[in-house]
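Hi W., the copper (II) ion complex you wanted:
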Amino acid sequence: MGLVRWFVGVLFLSTLLLCSADVHHYEFFVRESKFKKMCNTSTLLVVNNSYPGPEIRVHRGDTVFVNVHNRGKYGFTIHWHGVKQPRNPWFDGPEFITQCPIRPRTNFTYKIILSEEIGTLWWHAHSDWTRSSVHGAIVILPAENETYPFPTPDGEQTIILESWYNGYYKQIIDQALATGDPPRLPDAYAINGHLRDTYGCPSDTIFRMEVDYEKTYLLRIINAAMNEQQFFTITNHTVTVVAQDASYVRRFKSDYILISPGQTMDVLVSANRNVGLYYMATRPFSDSAALAVDLHFYWRFSLQKQSGWIDCFLDTASRNGRYGCYA
Ligand SMILES: [Cu+2]
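Structure:
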């Protein structure tokens, strides 16, 4: 009898655990849209007319169904970056690896099974350059019976770092593939789709996050840039890194982070400085003076030499205006 009761107890408990996992449904309509930035109009493929795309917000252990409608001109897939998908590989997303591309005017419903992941991941399209604009966050909150392994933050904010190109994104990568040259470097970098206030185009916007004095915020930072590792910092503030790629880590403080493309980092930041405005800043890592990738501080000009005109650059970011020329 005692054994039977124990069994009933275990069954009841496991039913409770199952009940706590939710199922979510999202509809993604993917089409090309025009966006005006840097006083230029660019055409890019986006989800639900939004750059970056919609956020998927779940608890640990939930299941998500995403119905992807391709209203664009060419095939693509969507990859659920970092989701382990136990016993569910055919919904992982890389095109021609686990599935064929979703053809134009068709749809495909993904089943995304979350298991141990906790913190932040992201989703992105998976063909050619489509991930440059078809991307968004996956926020994984603790399960209902769990807490954070640190004091619960007073608020949170997703920060998506992106690379921005002026022009027609598809054409830029098609040209690069046709010639065999690497695609050109980004024209700008964005935080949550906003360029900054210093590119010189009056209609450009800056991302703003409002905070309350002495409150602590969890920033979920995703590097969705195409190829560049990015530095990220907040002026006069330190951050405490608490999670990386959907796993908690041993916590550490830093003035800045360096985050690779595809990586996510969750950091805590306390609004404990004097009341005021503080810049959030991002810029790419570069270990070569001749190949600076931060176009913002980067002017090109030409010098006349006996052999003809050659291309030079002036890097205004360095203290004494370093310059050099291409051979
Ligand atoms: Cu990925």
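The pocket of copper (II) ion is lined by residues 79, 81, 124, 262 (CB under 6 Å).

W.
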